[in-house]
Amino acid sequence: MDWPTAAVAIAASAATSGVAIYALVQQGRNAEKDRAHDRDMRRSERRATAYVELLTALERQQMQVERTAPIFVEGQPPEPPPPLSDEELWRLSALAEVISSDALRARIEAWTQKQRQFFNDVLYLRQVQAHQQGRRPSETKDAFGVTSLEQWRKVETRRAELRDDLRAIGQQVRAEL
Prior knowledge:
Largest sheet: none
Order of helices and strands: HHHHH
Shape: rod-shaped
Radius of gyration: 32 Å
Strand content: under 5%
Oligomer: single chain
Structural class: mainly alpha
Number of helices: 5
Distance between the termini: 66 Å
């Protein structure tokens, strides 16, 4: 073999080897990108599933609010769903801690506090209503600081606020997904 032919053969062999090495490196990079993409997709799916579970529980709690007297419906009012068990509350708390942003956790915590206050307001309304039986509203206002109508309005206002706040939580969840 003469010198120029040997040089071309060596150059071709080197180029082919270079292309093969480049192709292997690119294939490795593409495989890593695919694995990272799959990992991100699984993480997103798990997060979405957790958010759905969290929102489902919040909706269930909102249904308790919606079905708690005083509500005006024809016929027998629907029974509220049973309260969440301790285990369910622990799981939801853990989900919120793991997947939620600080802003969303703060919003859920504020919603939960407002829900507790709603039930306290309902209990207070029942006490006011019981006291007001056979008395003038002014006597009840002197004793409790509110009339039953004023307390009922407070309960209804808080119920509407909870509805709006839950809608805002859902919007924030969608934004975070």
